[in-house]
Amino acid sequence: MQVILKQEIEAYVESHRQEMLDLWRDITNFQGHTEDLDALKNVVDRFKAEFEAAGLTCKLLPQGNKTQDYLVGEWGSENPGKPILFSGHYDTIMKPGTYPDNPFKIEGGKAFGPGVLDMRGGIIISLYVIKALIACGYNASPLRICYVSDEESCHEFNDKAGEVIMDSAKGCICAFNMETGRVNNDLCIGRSARVGFDVTVTGVATHAGNDFAGGRNAVAEMCHKVLEFEALTNLAVGSTVNCGVIHGGTVANAIPGKCELNIDMRFLKQSELEKTVAAAEEICKKTFIDGTHTQYKYRVAMPAFETIPGIMELYTLANDVAKAYGYDEAGKIVLGGVSDASYLTMAGVPTICSFGVRGEDNHTIKEYAVVESLFERTKWLAALCLNLGEFKY
What we know:
The protein is of the alpha/beta class. About 35% of the residues lie in helices and about 25% in strands.
């Protein structure tokens, strides 16, 4: 492998360290829970301005009154190669009031704050990869971005999210989903699908002493169903069904007339999702206690990020580049948490997820990112883009 523009890329990143940190601070301090549309407007407007200043032509795509705009853009549409896509989300998981104003801080080489890891740092990496490539005269492929505002809610209020992401991925040679980087430097090559499945059983509420026989116990009916739902788990193929939350009844001396169950299902294969969901629906249609009635609905659903052809070759090339350029090589992992990388592979585009800053404890108040990884990953990903001419599968 020929080491291309190593000194130039590294010099660019090193000369912009403070600028990158300042942007990271500003963006993190905006906060921006999925449903905090005003805060998210500040975030997306700032990112749009930054990417446009870098030379991209950008658009904001409205997504309805419960979801903030999506940010898409492209640079170098005249370049001869297939586009490279950088993707992810700019919303955060923590609700307003969780953090004080201006929560970003750096202590002991770690950055703290809402979304500092998941995943504002990754978006900043993609911005400076693009800026570094342009500064070094890159002209091989168009460079695209697609950043959405509601991934943390699994696009609960937007049934068109997948279409937008897949449309951005069309024709791309590969994609880098700039999600949470693993603290041990692993790269994510696959993720589970997730389905949120809510079940409600309605029975007949009566006094347990005066009219036991007249009651129809909704909790008992649900218990029969829970055992059958749980039996759908198949660890051999990476499918899990977890009956996580159940509510039913009012007092011990009354036959419960209603019971509600929240189920989390996860699947490594989209085919297993479809098969298991169909089986869960059949369980709902069964009646164990006459006089009870069962309804179900899907709360959220995210498809599987399957390890399609090309992903392992892209992962191998990423490590070949790391070795040639003197960077740390990465392990690989398949994760149970979902991401929008699933839609990229559904579009047939080889994708590596978790190329963002490295850290831990996302989705908690302890979330942190390793500061130096902001610069390390920018250099590595820029070098990988320079060497995509060797990507064959």
